[in-house]
Design a protein that fits this description.
seven-stranded mixed sheet; 9 helices; six-stranded mixed sheet; binds zinc ion; Metallo-beta-lactamase, Chain A; alpha+beta
C-alpha cells in the first residue's frame, strides 16, 4: 500500500492514506461544509504533512479547519491534534472518557501499553517503539456523547454514535447529507500479525450489531474506517460478519484454554497468541484479560487466585 493522493469519496468527504506498516494502513478523513471543515481523527505525529496534503487537495485553509473530531484516544488517532489546534484554532471534540488520554499522554501510554508491567515489562525497546507515535498532549474543547453533532454548515453535520468495545468509549460519526459513516477502530483489524485488541468483548459485539442496524436503517452509502479502505454499505455488512466471526474465534480460543487446573492469565494469553498465530504484545494481553473477566462475570469461568482461572463446567 502506498501513500496515495487524497480522494474525494463523496461531495465534501475527503480521504488520504498513510501506510503505518506493510499490514496496517491509516486513513485520514476531512469533511467539508459550507461554514468550515472537520478533520476526523488526527493520525500520528508523523501524519502532519499528510493532513496538509489532504487539506490542500480539499481546498481547506487553516482558517477553515474548525473542528478536530476524535473517534477514540489511541495514539494513531490524536497525533496531530496539538499542532493543528495551535496553528488553526480548530476545536477538539471527543468523548468525555477520552479526555484524560488526549490531555495526559503519560497516563495514555501507561494504561494502554504498560498496563501489566509484571507480565510485559516497561523496557527501553518498548519505549523506543512507542515514543515516536506519541505527539504533544492536547486540550479537549468539547465533549460529545450519543446524539450530539458537529455542524459544518450547508446541511453537513457529523452526528455522534457511541460504539464501545475496542476501547471503553469510542464515537462513530454519521454524515447524513452524503450518507457517509466515519469510523475509527469500532471495527477492528482482524488479520494483522498482532491483535488489534478490544477491552469490552460484549460491548464490542453489541457495537457490531448496532453498526449493522445503523447501516441498513440510516441509508448509509459508504463507510470510512481508519484501518480499512472505504467501502459500500453492502461491503461493510460483509466486513461486520467477518469481524463477528473473528470475535467468536477469539472467545472460543481464550475460553478453550480453561479446564479444571488453574491457568494463569499469562499462560492463557500466550496460548491464545500461539493458537491464533499472533505476536505476544500488550494489546492482546489486555484483550485476553478482558475475555477472562467476562467469562467469570457470565459464570463460564471462576477466578481462583490472582490472575488464576478455571473453567466452570455445567455439572458444577
Ligand atoms: Zn487505530
Amino acid at each position: 500500500m502506498t501513500g496515495d493522493d487524497p480522494m474525494e469519496l463523496a461531495p465534501g468527504v475527503w480521504q488520504v492514506c498513510q501506510p503505518l506498516s506493510e499490514e496496517v494502513p491509516l486513513y485520514l478523513h476531512l469533511v467539508v461544509g459550507a461554514d468550515g471543515s472537520a478533520l476526523v481523527d488526527g493520525g500520528l505525529p508523523s501524519s502532519l504533512p499528510v493532513v496538509q496534503r489532504l487539506m490542500g487537495a480539499a481546498g481547506v485553509r487553516d482558517g477553515d479547519l474548525r473542528f478536530l473530531v476524535n473517534t477514540h484516544a489511541h495514539h494513531d488517532h490524536i497525533g496531530t491534534f496539538a499542532a493543528l489546534r495551535e496553528r488553526t484554532g480548530a476545536r477538539v471534540v471527543a468523548a468525555p472518557q477520552a479526555v484524560r488520554w488526549i490531555e495526559d499522554l503519560d497516563t495514555n501510554l501507561r494504561e494502554f501499553a504498560l498496563h501489566r508491567p509484571d507480565i510485559i515489562p516497561d523496557s527501553p525497546e518498548l519505549r523506543a517503539e512507542l515514543a515516536p507515535t506519541y505527539g504533544a498532549p492536547c486540550e479537549v474543547d468539547v465533549t460529545m456523547t450519543e446524539g450530539g453533532a458537529v455542524r459544518l454548515g450547508g446541511g453537513v453535520a457529523l452526528e455522534a454514535f457511541e460504539l464501545p468495545g475496542h476501547v471503553v468509549a469510542e464515537l462513530g460519526w454519521l454524515e447524513r447529507s452524503s450518507g457517509t459513516l466515519l469510523l475509527g477502530d469500532a471495527v477492528t483489524g482482524t488479520s494483522w500479525s498482532f491483535f488489534h485488541g478490544h477491552v469490552l468483548p460484549t460491548e464490542f459485539r453489541r457495537s457490531l450489531h448496532r453498526l449493522r442496524a445503523l447501516t441498513m436503517d440510516e441509508d448509509v452509502q459508504r463507510v470510512c474506517l481508519s484501518h480499512y479502505a472505504s467501502r459500500t454499505a453492502a461491503e461493510f455488512l460483509g466486513l461486520l460478519g467477518e469481524v463477528e466471526q473473528y470475535l467468536d474465534d477469539v472467545t472460543a480460543t481464550v475460553e478453550g484454554g480453561l479446564d479444571d487446573t488453574p491457568r494463569s492469565l499469562t499462560e492463557l494469553w500466550r496460548r491464545t497468541c500461539a493458537e491464533l498465530r499472533r505476536a505476544e504484545e500488550f494489546r492482546g494481553l489486555a484483550m485476553v484479560a478482558a475475555h477472562l473477566r467476562e467469562a467469570v462475570a457470565a459464570g463460564r469461568a471462576r477466578c481462583v487466585g490472582p490472575d488464576l482461572y478455571v473453567a466452570v463446567t455445567s455439572g458444577g
